[in-house]
Amino acid sequence: MGWYDVFKNTKINYFLIDMGIAIAPLIYFYVKSITTSNFKFDKKNWWHFAPIFLLITFRLSIYIYDSLQPGFSETQNGILKLSVDEAIVLPILMFVSFAQMLLYLAFTFQLFYNYRKRITAYFSNTYKLELNWILSFLIVFTALFLYSSLQSVIGSLIIELNYEQRWWLNIFMALVVLFVGIKGYFTDTTKLNKLSFSFSPNPESIPEVKDDKKEASKIDIDKVSNFMKLEKPYLNPDLNLSDLADLLEMNRAELSKIINTGFNKNFNDFINEYRVNTFKEKLKIGEHKQLSLLGIAYDCGFNSKATFNRVFKKLTHTSPSEFLNSQAE
User: Fold this and answer.
1) What is the 3-state secondary structure (H, E, C) of the chain?
2) pTM given for the model
3) Number of CB atoms found within 10 A of residue 65's CB
4) 266 close to 257: Cβ distance less than 8 angstroms
5) Contact 246/270 with Cβ under 8 angstroms?
6) Which of 310, 316, 328 is nearest to 120 (CA)?
7) Among 184, 191, 205, 206, which is most buried by a count of CB atoms within 10 Å?
């Protein structure tokens, strides 16, 4: 932009802070606040931002020192800025920032995929809770970050890149951050706020799905199976593990173990298999002549077209329309 040529004694270099070391933990805590019920940012979490606070303190300190030196007003960078910050701190910071971002992105991806596993262990319809926009954000942001790192290496070791060759990356980064902020603001996570994802043994938490050497008894398996066939609770699109446990007069941990060890399925697959089988039965008796396939799916307990098509394809290895055509042949 010609800033340094026009304002040769500007002190802006002291205040150009690499915000990547702050953005990395911010992204992690942002995703954690959405995927963790009743998450609260406490005092110990501030330690994640120690590097950015140390950098700001360091820059202010060297600025104060350099400003007290003779001739500072006539130059762009003072003694400590050149001999300490640019010669030692900035090269180290480049590697630290890169490593920190990779580490936090890895933790964030892990956090998100663990969340995905948890909701399938509790909810029968997960489409509105899958938060695909977060996954899209993480993938795009990671791609831009890696490109930015590659661009920095090229600019430092191979050929100098001017501002016009770099500016568009900053715009895309800004757009991605704005997207996730706006999307997150308008996303309803009310259902998640009512739940505990701690997987602790207390009765208010969602039980962790674990391999248990002691399998569910045949009596318990038959109890659940008979109840599903007779009462058809899966027709309720909002059915979750807690609801079904209450109906069966069990606790959630007990029911979760029965489903996982007795039926060898997670809760989501267990319920949706009943819905798919009910859908097939309705096709056999010709309900598709009065209702659309999606209308029948809704009657079977599904609450979205996307979930229905995905689940049906997973369980039958064919689409609903292809299945209907095969039945007609």
Assistant:
1) CCHHHHCCCCCHHHHCCCCHHHHHHHHHHHHHHHHCCCCCCCHHHHHHHHHHHHHHHHHHHHHHHHHCCCCHHHCCCCHHHHHHHHHHHHHHHHHHHHHHHHHHHHHHHHHHHHHHHHHHCCECCCHHHCCHHHHHHHHHHHHHHHHHHHHHHHHHHHCCCCHHHHHHHHHHHHHHHHHHHHHHHCCCCHHHHCCECCCCCCCCECCCCCCCCCCCCHHHHHHHHHHHHHHCHHHCCCCEHHHHHHHHCCCHHHHHHHHHHHCCCCHHHHHHHHHHHHHHHHHHCCHHHCCCHHHHHHHCCCCCHHHHHHHHHHHHCCCHHHHHHHHHC
2) 0.80
3) 15
4) no
5) no
6) 310
7) 206
- Using the structure block, give the residue that is written with the tokens 């019920």: 37
Planar angle of CA 240, 244, 250, nearest 5 degrees? 130
- Would you say 112 and 135 are in contact if contact means Cβ atoms under 8 Å apart? yes
Residues of the chain with pLDDT under 70: 1-8, 155, 161-165, 189-215, 328-329
Residue 276 and residue 309: Cα distance in Å, rounded? Answer: 10
Q: Which of 34, 40, 20, 195 is nearest to 112 (CA)?
A: 34
Task: Summarize pLDDT for 109-120 with one digit per residue, the tens.
Answer: 999 999 998 888
Neighbours of 258 (CB within 10 A): 22
Residue 205: predicted pLDDT: 41
Which residues make Cβ contacts (< 8 Å) with residue 69, sequence separation at least 6? 78, 79
59 phi and psi angles, rounded to 5 deg = -65, -40
Tell me how many degrees the CA angle 85-106-52 measures, rounded to the nearest 5: 25
Gap between the Cα atoms of 154 and 145, Å rounded: 14
Cβ neighbours around 247 below 10 Å, total: 14
Q: Which pair of tokens denotes residue 324?
A: 């209907």
Q: Any idea which residue has 């959630």 for tokens?
A: 252
Residues 6+ apart with CB under 8 A from 187: 34, 131, 133
Residue 173 to residue 196: CA distance in whole angstroms: 33
